[in-house]
Amino acid sequence: MNLYEHTIIARQDTSPSEIKQLTEKYSKLVEKNEGEIVKTENWGIINLSHLIKKNKKGSYIHFKIKGNGKMINELEKNESLDKKLLRYLTIKVKKFDLDTNYFGVKESNDKKEQKES
Fold first, then answer.
1. What pLDDT is attached to residue 91?
2. Are 25 and 14 in contact (CB under 8 A)?
3. What is the 3-state secondary structure (H, E, C) of 10-68?
4. Buried b or exposed e, range 43-76, using 16+ CB within 10 angstroms
5. What is the pTM of this model?
6. Which of 1, 35, 45, 75 has the fewest CB atoms within 10 Å of its CB?
7. What are phi and psi of 77, to 5 degrees?
8. Is residue 106 part of a domain?
9. Domain range spanning residue 39?
10. What SS3 class is residue 110?
11. How far is it, in rounded angstroms, from Cα 97 to Cα 11?
């Protein structure tokens, strides 16, 4: 089985309930095509580097997936038809980094020092 990191960007005006529906929809699609979702992360609304379909911001959802190329093709085919999505990107990786949360709230140094004491 191959390992993939897959990120989708939804329109900024997509409600939190619609984001949850998109996450469930694509998770079910992966599982239906013999794939496995290892981890799902909702990165929230992030500024885009340039306008995409007249949007300055987008809601990012990131999946870590185990599966085959056929499953990824099916996933991307469905996403290309979805009007709520601005972009999607799939990258094949050798292993997952499940520990680091790149878009989480970072702790200050004071809090870290208190925990270590």
1. 92
2. no
3. EECCCCHHHHHHHHHHHHHHHHHCCCEEEEEEEEEEEEEEEEECCEEEEEEEEEEEEEC
4. beeeebeeeeeeeebbbbbbbbbbbeeebbebbe
5. 0.79
6. 1
7. -65, -45
8. no
9. 2-95
10. helix
11. 27
- What band does 108 get if pLDDT is binned at 50, 70 and 90? very low
Does the residue 101 lie in any domain? no
Mean predicted lDDT score pLDDT of the chain: 84
Across the strands, what pairs with 36? 66
pLDDT tens for each residue of 13-67: 888 899 999 999 999 998 998 888 988 888 889 999 999 888 899 999 999 999 8
Structure tokens given for 80: 């290309």
Maximal C-alpha separation, the chain: 53
CATH number at residue 18: 3.30.70.60
104 lies in some domain: no
